[in-house]
Amino acid sequence: MIGVPGLVKLKTITAITMALVFGVIAGIFAVVLWYMGASGYDGLIMALFFSLIMLAIQWYLGPILIKAITQMREIKEDEYPELHSIVEKLSKASSIPKPKLYLVNDSTPNAFAFGRTLKNSNIAVHAGLLNLLNKGEIESVLAHEIGHIKHRDVLVMTIASVLPIMLYYIVLTMGMNRDDRKRGGNVILVWIGAQIASFLGQLLVLWLSRQREYYADAFSAYTTQEPTNLMSGLAKISYKMPSNAQNTALKAFYIADPSISERQSIIEITKAISIGNEKEIQQAIEKEKKRNIVELFMTHPLTAKRLDALLKLKREIA
What we know:
- It is a single chain.
- The chain has one domain (4-226): 2-Layer Sandwich (Zincin-like).
- The protein is built from 13 helices and 4 strands.
- It has helices spanning 4-36, 41-70, 81-94, 127-132, 135-150, 153-161, 163-176, 187-224, 227-240, 260-265, 267-275, 278-289, 303-317; strands at 73-74, 100-104, 111-115, 121-126.
- α7 (163-176) runs antiparallel to α8 (187-224) and α8 (187-224) packs parallel to α13.
- It is globular, with a radius of gyration of 22 Å.
- The relative contact order is 0.12.
């Protein structure tokens, strides 16, 4: 069970994340309304309506498409009783309904959570994850996914993913409703502006995606009280992940999405964690961080940064 300080911290973080997503969207519309006035109201309503339709489609069809893409199958209680027992325990500790468990027949070691609501949540595990990790590491990974469900991250990211689309059409609406349109304003510049706005929106979505991984890692650490298990699990997953093995359509959902450079160098961190020497772990992490891999366009933080954060949590929990 999460201790009170950790629980309060995670609830605060979750609230801030939700406020940021909805606040940015609300702020954009407030600015646009002020900027455009009544003349641009119709265009704005159309942009909002279109964005809401996209959001509804993604929210409803998401789980169906994920199941179809991965060809997963539901895991019965008597098939992996230990796995069900772990999820049952973690769900009770987190005060959420027990998610359904699915197995993806894929040799890459990974797992992810998906679903529409807390009552309709699911966790999918790859066969490769069950073959690679030990019981403690599997539990820590499942706790990470329970954290995503608890934080409603699927909903947060579904809403956030519409932001670039909204920005694109809002900027187009603003450009087409300016007075200079009547004087033959430059349509190309308006289009470029819309593209830039969409790009910046996508960067924000990726940043939110990286933050949610940190929060789910922290949730796992507090829930299991064993951050080292998640550290070793993440290191193994990153090291054993074959190049180009990930399903790119789902990479934002996975527990890890290491870059090729990370996969090539994470072996030192894996060895340090297996030894259990914190000094060597820290040295290996610092060495990896100095590689200066750009994570701006990544859905997940660098593995070294996640391990560094977990190492700090380990010292805090101890």
